[in-house]
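Aim 2, interim progress. The first record below pairs a target sequence with its structure tokens.
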Amino acid sequence: MDLGIAGRSALVCASSKGLGRACAESLAREGAAVTMVARGREVLEDAAEAIRRATAARVTTVVADITTAAGRATVLEACGAPDILVTNAGGPKPGDFREWEREDWIAALDANMLAPIALMKATIDAMIARRFGRIVNITSAAVKAPIDILGLSNGARSGLTGFVAGLARGVVAHNVTINNLLPGPFETDRLRDTARQWSRQTGKSEDTVLAERRAANPAGRFGTPAEFGDACVYLCSAQAGFITGQNLLLDGGNYPGTF
């Protein structure tokens, strides 16, 4: 299927590794010109070069912290007005809410709620004017089924989800869609960080924690970043113009509910 985004410009945040990188690669493979953003230069440049070799796409890199106004300004100056925006940020630290101070909550909100909203604010009017825009926010399955040790993430990402639910319905008539992708257990550094936290709490080894989580999933495995990237690129496609304000859960069937 031709997804109709060849020649479109895409901005993908936190894309030096993990799910962000997978989204950047899937978009590049479909012919989009991709701007990749991350805070670490070496890993970002390595990822971008690998994607260039694999896809022959035009890939631009920007080293910046999108949780800051200065970082967002640097990114937007480099990529202009993107047709496609994929927001993403590393999840806040796990733990017990008794351990967190106000600054921990502010950092979580800045990364996982306020920065995506600021990027949408900066790009959405140009999308409306062009009558094409695709915004995908990478959130978490914890929005659907909160995880006790991820309270910072539960709170901040749920705030973004509520905001998107209202905004998405106000712009879809202009062929601008906004959706959220909710990853469950994928083979990423974040999964391993969470496993280490559970390991400390339970006394089990990290490998045992991972094996038990894998076995407990109906799919019998963890997801691959490539699967996630391809789901993202479909939501960014020309064919996805009638899908908006949705929270697409990718978790191998782990969530047991109907709704």
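The second target in this work package is listed in the same format:
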Amino acid sequence: MAFLCFTPWVSSPIALVAGFLFAHFVGHPFEWLKGKAVSNLLKIAVVGLGFGMNAHEALATSQSGFLMIVGSISLTLLMGFLISRLIGIEKVPSYLISVGTAICGGSAIAAVSPVVNAKEQDISMALGVVFLLNAVALILFPFIGHLLDLSQQDFGLWSAIAIHDTSSVVGAANAYGLEALEIATTVKLSRALWIIPVSLFSMLIFRGKGQSVKIPWFILYFVLAMLVNTFFPISFSEDIVGIARSVMVLCLFLIGMGISVEKIRSAGIKPLLHGFSLWVLVSVGSLLMILL
């Protein structure tokens, strides 16, 4: 089944759903590819996509989306705090969900967790909420994009702002079109860089001392690949990009296999309500800003 991810017959949304259904009915035959292994595959795929992008165009795209990135992160954290007070969810898990929604899902949660001294239960709860909403977004966003007849540029920007994890952003944009994929990946990785300042900010809020901040080095490699493609183009760059896109689909299949009914149930009602409310506000708000 996994080999079908390297064929044109399996798209990103199909791969995610297929992985979930396969693991649910058959089982997970790739236990060793959980967690860090899938994360590393994802990072390799993202770096490979850099060989298909132009640095000049990427810079222009990042500049046009800069204010929206900063505004969305700030407003998401603020709204996350207000919603948590409204529904009565604990401070740490609500903050993890807010950070995951504001920046880049699981990566942001993993980076901030040691800074805020999060418990394993808090981390699992936040990851469960984010992964569930990622799965919904991956399937729903391309449908909404076509329904509203969004341009490639608008959809790429919207998905980069409103979807949590890099894998789901790239997956949704990949299903929409190549131009949307380039814009979404660039803006998303620009957004992911905010892990560092937000982590430092979190240390001040939660008064963590002696805590380290995980720097997403793969973003630097992505930029280097983009610079190579711009100033020192290689003849087989298209082949690298094609392989990277296939690996991305495979990652989504493996991620889908890691989503279980038990994980969704263990998240609880309040965290799900918190994450869903925040996600809807960000999705609708950013879409309105793009359209208007």
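The chain has 14 helices and no strands. This observation will shape the mutagenesis plan for the next reporting period.
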